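Let us work through a complete example step by step.
Step 1: write down the sequence.
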Amino acid sequence: MKKTTAILFVALILGLGWAIRGHFGHEWGASWAGAMAGLAVLVAAGRIDWLKRLPTITAMTAIGWGVGGMMSYGLIVGMGRAPDFGNVLYGLSMLAVIGGLYGFIGGGLLGLTLESTEEYKPDWPKLLTEMIAGGVLAWGILIYQFEWKMTPPRSELWAACVGAAAALTWFLKRNGYTRSLATAGYSALGAGFGFGFGNFLQTLGYTGGSLINWWNVMEFSVGFFGGIGLAYGVFSREWPESRQPSQQANKFALVFIFLVIPIVNILHAFHYKEFLQMAQKAGLDEPQIYADFITAVSWMLVILITMIVLIIWTKSNFKIENTKNSIAVFMLSACTFTYLMFGHIKKGFFLPSQRIQIEHYFYWFVVFISFLLYFFSRQKKSGPFFIGHPDNWKKWSILLIIFIIILGIASFISILIHDGGTGFQTRF
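Step 2: predict the structure and record it as tokens.
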């Protein structure tokens, strides 16, 4: 793939994953979207050394993006729809912080996994300990000592994510993982911009009276721009030869990605009573049959996909030099298809009365465009795609200033077009 195609490919895949994640929410939905992003990076890069560690790289990316799922942002979204400049700017800015934390930890852990070599392996237990300690410490100080509450009366675990991100930053900096740190920064910038800008788009959509699910538009924006930042961070620098894979770790990671994450999502988000109510609302004669069937399909889909993935990986892993990235493409397809089906099931899309949900057709359009990009570009030279300009404080200062100006302009436009969006909240 060419550089622009590769970045767009990753952005579309993460945007799709994050849009579907809007139906699930919380850590485990975010981790599924993160897994899709990790797989998309590996597919776009096509590096054999990375493909040999596909499961572990993907699992760490999933964990990184999933961490931020503990943060609450519903009220912040409402503040972005407020009728006055101060509350709107606060809402968009805090969404930028939340999106930035998602991207920073997700991009940082992906980068650290890619930067792991035979000679220089990260001390993962030490990093995990530091991130947990940093999260607890920052949460205690910022919330219980300083009482800097972002979204009262809801959860303030954004502060824990700040502490975890700070610990990750210090670990990457003092151990010389400069590529990972840059990837984390660009990913944070993209996801932060995507969240704030996405809320602005949502406000425009609701003001215009469109029937589109603008919450999904906002979620897609987070993933799309976060994917741009993540992909740019990876594809704008040289990476060392990756360490040799651990077959045991790879298999555990595959089980985590294709079995554990989906099962936890089923347990948290798929409720029999909910399916029963959907069927009753749709006017089905025997709603319990639909509820039983859709529940069984969800479990069977997870088990079937997991079995196929494990068999293909076991049979093909040692021939990966010959198959190139076809295994990665299959894994991405399986992960994406399962998530799409879960999104449809969760929203009752297969019920006749629910097929008006336009966003579900858009999901498949994004899939079509993404894989069209891949198949038309698969013969092109793979990464490293280009070497970007050196990262320095001047470059980051300019990017942050542009970021702040755009948020300010969006806030000003927002208060001009409405007197208070649906469900708006005020902080001040």
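Step 3: interpret the result. Residues 178-208 form the longest helix (31 residues).
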